[in-house]
Design brief:
Length: 474
């Protein structure tokens, strides 16, 4: 299998070269030429697999044999060795129609660990086996940065720089990034919002001369391996919910409700469904930065006014993975995708209507939960089920309550541990016990550079940080 750009101007690439490229050289996003189709018989075989085994099966469909089977197994085992639950992503039943997929058992207590611990091991593997210099550059709304840093800190042949919006992430998210003092880690705190950070990253990756000179590699979900790794837990959640339904499984439809600000997490579910996983409803949960809800409801994709919320990881107005969905919505017509993205750049909006909008609404449901609604649901579910939601998961539960119907059950994705967002939890007078790994952060020194929202300043910081790095082939 080869990989191509959504904008059609990149020669087909192999799997490893696609991962190293990150953003397509034409500004598009890389996708597989064809999506593997998984039969009902194969799904039945996969149903009893453990998470690590399932990961290998799915990943192997996309990797073209470029990673030997034994090497892949070692990478997967190393990636999930630090997870606190042996299931990696366990499923908890809250009531007869709601199940929670817990994605926060990795080292930084957020769903990003599932993909980024693997990406760290993968980049280290490529550095050693191919002699590649790996200079990782990424932007974060809070969780990606911590997970990415944890995945590569101290690894030989790799340096990582993460941009985060200054004072617009939770305190725990900030501490998880900035208390790391490894020489291969640089944290830049940008006086702007996440969209500003993401824009600078995309501009730097689009500068092919700068990208090549400094060996830039992507850690954000513009990189297809992030999407692929996340696809695994959709299959896993579906299988585990089916198991818990028992004899009722045949009569129930299974939905997923997914907090998703950058469209990466929900696109992984879209990919899983296109592969053949019989998900019923793909439900996007957002907050008051509700560009995705507005698109699904009206067909208009237009960044609005940025709003700071209790769920800061979704405080995003420009969803970078939206282009991948648009590619499939337009029946893989890269010329049309290019036209739409050019229109977005020039006019600040795009619009789909008629049959295209009907198709969007048949494929996706979306809800933008309000701040107070999220807090009320945290209070409600703690009281009724003694289960503490984080603010992002609360948005997912709000969407479940809006869209789950008779004969359906929903797996709502718990994308972070509530301890990461104690500022919100304390607003409703709930006192939680912090995991020791989080409680210890406040006593540590911080290491970060606060900079203006200025691409030129980011460039200067990167050039100084990356200077003189070399790697020898193993």
């Amino acid at each position: 299998m080869n990989y191509i750009s959504t904008r059609g101007q990149v020669e087909p690439k192999g799997f490893i070269d696609t991962v190293l490229m990150g953003l397509g050289e034409d500004g598009g996003l890389m996708v597989p030429e064809t999506i593997p189709s998984v039969s009902a018989e194969t799904l039945n075989k996969w149903k009893g697999l453990e998470f690590r085994e399932l990961f290998i099966e799915i990943f192997s469909l996309y990797a073209n044999g470029e990673i030997p089977e034994n090497d892949l197994k070692e990478l997967v085992d190393a990636s999930y060795a630090s997870f606190r639950d042996p299931e990696v992503t366990p499923v908890r039943k809250l009531n007869d129609s709601l199940y929670i997929l817990e994605l926060f058992h990795g080292p930084t207590f957020a769903f990003k660990d599932v993909a980024l611990q693997f990406m760290g091991e993968f980049y280290s593997y490529v550095s050693k086996t191919r002699g590649e210099i790996i200079h990782i550059l990424g932007a974060t709304s809070g969780d990606t940065g911590a997970a990415a840093i944890q995945g590569v800190r101290g690894k030989e042949g790799i340096k990582i720089c993460i941009l985060h919006p200054h004072e617009k992430v939770s305190k725990v998210q900030e501490l998880q990034m900035t208390t790391v003092n490894d020489k291969n880690v640089l944290n830049l705190s940008v006086k702007g919002n996440f969209d500003d950070c993401q824009r600078i990253i995309k501009e730097l990756f689009s500068d092919l001369s700068f990208k090549g000179e400094h060996h830039l590699r992507a850690i954000n979900s513009i990189n297809f391996v992030r999407i692929l790794a996340q696809t695994v837990y959709y299959f896993y959640a579906y299988f585990r919910v089916s198991d818990q339904l028992g004899s009722d499984a045949a009569s129930k439809k299974i939905n997923v409700s997914v907090p998703s600000g950058n469209f990466g997490n929900i696109f992984s579910g879209f990919l899983a469904k296109k592969m053949g996983l019989p998900i019923n409803k793909l439900i996007i949960a957002t907050n008051e930065n509700n560009i995705l809800e507005r698109f699904v409801q009206t067909g208009e994709y237009r960044p609005g006014e940025f709003r700071k919320t209790h769920s800061p990881s979704m405080d995003i107005q420009v969803a970078s993975n939206f282009e991948r969905y648009l590619y499939y919505l337009l029946d893989e017509d890269s010329a049309k995708v290019s036209d739409y993205m050019a229109q977005l750049a020039s006019e600040g909006r795009i619009f789909v209507e008629g049959e295209l909008l009907e198709r969007v609404q048949s494929e996706l449901h979306a809800l933008g939960a309000k701040n107070e609604q999220g807090l009320e649901l945290i209070r409600k579910y703690k009281s009724e089920y003694d289960y503490l939601l984080d603010p992002h998961t609360a948005c997912g539960v709000a969407a479940y309550e809006a869209f789950n119907e008779e004969g359906e059950v929903t797996a709502a994705f718990a994308t972070a541990h509530p301890a990461k967002f104690d500022e919100a939890v304390r607003l409703i007078n709930i006192v939680q016990e912090f995991p020791v790994q989080i409680a210890e952060l406040v006593a540590k020194d911080q290491f970060q550079t606060v900079i203006e929202n200025d691409k030129a300043e980011v460039t200067r910081q990167l050039e100084a940080f990356f200077a003189g790095d070399t790697v020898s082939k193993a």
